[in-house]
Amino acid sequence: MLRVDIEKQLGEFSLHASFASEGRAIGLFGASGAGKTSLVNMIAGLLRPDRGTIVIDGETVDDTAAGIHVPAWRRRIGYVFQDARLFPHLNVAQNLDYGRRMNRLPPDPSQHKRIIDLLDIGALLDRRPGKLSGGERQRVALGRALLSKPRLLLLDEPLGALDEGRKLEILPYLVRLRDEANVPMVYVSHDAAELRQLATQIVMLKQGRVTSFGGVKVLT
Amino acid sequence: MFEISPAEWTAILLSLRVAIIATLVATPFGIALAWLLARRDFWGKSLLDAVVHLPLVLPPVVTGYLLLLTFGRRGLVGGFLADHLGIVFSFRWTGAALACGVMSFPLLVRPMRLSIEAIDRRLEQAAETLGAAPWKVFFTVTLPLALPGVLAGMVLGFAKAIGEFGATITFVSNIPGETQTISSAIYSLIQTPDGDAAAGRLVIVSIVLALGALIAAEWFARRATARLHGN
Q1: Which homologous superfamily does the CATH classification assign to the domain defined by A2-89+152-219?
Q2: Which residue in A215, A156, A112 sits closest to B125, CA to CA?
Q3: Spatial distance between the Cα atoms of B199 and B178, rounded to a whole number of angstroms
Q4: For residue A200, with 0-12 CB atoms within 10 Å meaning exposed, 13-18 middle and 19 or more buried, which class applies?
């Protein structure tokens, strides 16, 4: 599903990560500053590796030796950021529809309804992002990413900006998403408890290196 | 007392036409340049920035004279345009529009640039991950979010264009009905023995237009802020 073998120098910090996974929910675990976000940005195509390869679903999206770099907009990935990043000039319904429009996909009312129900955002459709709570924003961001029909979902600390109560509000949606949405995901977090609930496989990152790889047992 | 004569109307309408055309033609260039200055790093960027601002600090008569040398009948560009495309600038209202466009360009670009710089680039990244090619990102995210700034730039540019005097009179002279704008009409009237009342009326018209434009620009700027916060 996902194969990563990259090197990247970012100022003083060097990132050198290599792993391959067929897992449905890969947990990327590490302290802040371990290089998690840089790694995810490279998988997304927002950052270019200095050396190495990235393969998503059998397609090589980065191969520095062969001069391959598929730009982010052609990778068909869904990215949920810690800070939601909803478009402030569009309402919730337009935000949700954005990916479908950009990818010129035909409307898919049944998927649309399924995801809106799954995330419980049907009542928010007419609102502007400025009028949403943090938890609501994150759910809309999840829906927006899913509705672009990605082949891989990247979630970079999607609960990071929320307080404990809100986290507990979103977690069940993420579990349902993993089990029902049928999109493999990479879930980034520095919270072992979160990953134990969500991930089926763990990549542990420490100071830019993969230190362990395996089932959720490696978290202990 | 406040009866605007046909001759004064001619000057007012000409000013409006010149300023509107100047603003509309300058806007796409202004947006492109604002984006370039806000979002790209390239060799000679500070020089380009300085050149854009030059009409703001150069004596208007110098700008007008340079336009005459370049776009006049015997000028390098003007000669080519006249011979091959039939576009003539010298002593025509189109020349007045060109002079106004050049003179107002720095004011037009500035709010556009500021509003593009204020847009969170991470929103553009989010659009990219959702499958938007760079030009689509520009038209669906960058431009709509910058729109109030774009309009503010247009209003300011328009206000400056409608009051332009020095470069216009140098480049295209002061011909009633063809190149005599409000400013040049006032200039002629205050040199005429009994032109004071007419000059006074045109002065009031100028003040009203300028004030209206500034208020409109301010309103658009406030809209821009609200828009960026998603309310």
Answers
A1: P-loop containing nucleotide triphosphate hydrolases (3.40.50.300)
A2: A156
A3: 19
A4: middle
The answer to whether the CB atoms of B134 and A73 lie below 8 A apart is yes
Residue type, B164: E
Output the pLDDT for position B118: 92
C-alpha distance from residue A145 to each of A21, A103, B25, B126 (Å): 22, 12, 39, 9
- What pLDDT was estimated at residue A33? 84
| Nearest-by-CA chain B residue for A87 | B123
The model's pTM: 0.88
* HEC secondary structure over A87-128: CCCCCHHHHHHHHHHHCCCCCCHHHHHHHHHHHCCHHHCCCC
Q: Is residue B59 packed enough to be buried (19+ CB in 10 Å), middle (13-18) or exposed (0-12)?
A: exposed
Chain B residues within 8 A (CB-CB) of chain A? Answer: 120, 122-123, 125-134, 136-137, 140-141, 144-145, 227-231
The more confident residue out of A23 and B48 is B48
Per-residue pLDDT of chain B (231 residues; tens, 9 = 90+): 578 888 899 999 999 999 999 999 999 999 999 999 999 999 999 999 999 999 999 999 999 999 999 998 888 888 888 888 888 898 899 999 999 999 999 999 999 999 999 999 999 999 999 999 999 999 999 999 999 999 999 999 999 999 899 999 999 999 988 999 999 999 999 999 888 999 999 999 999 988 988 898 888 888 877 877 766
Q: Which amino acid does the sequence have at A208? A: G
Task: Give domain limits for chain A.
Answer: 2-89+152-219
Both tokens assigned to B202: 């045109």
Task: List, in sequence order, every beta strand (DSSP E) within A22-165.
Answer: 25-29, 51-56, 59-63, 68-69, 77-80, 152-156
> Can you tell me the ipTM of this complex?
0.92
Comparing alpha-carbon positions, the chain B residue that sits nearest to A80 is: B126
Measured in whole angstroms, the distance separating CA A28 from the mean position of its chain's CA atoms is 10
What does DSSP say about strands A51-56 and A2-10: parallel, antiparallel, or unpaired?
antiparallel
Rg (CA), chain A: 17
Could you tell me which chain B residue has the CA closest to the CA of A86?
A: B123
d(CA A162, CA A169): 10
B chain contacts of residue A43, beta-carbon cutoff 8 Å:
none
Mean pLDDT over residues A87-107, rounded? 95
- What does the alpha-carbon distance between residue A80 and residue A87 come to, in Å, rounded to a whole number? 13
Half-sphere exposure of A63 (CA within 13 A, CB side): 10
Task: Give exposure, B178-200, as e/b (b: 16+ Cβ within 10 Å).
Answer: bbbbbbbbbebbeeeeeeeebbe
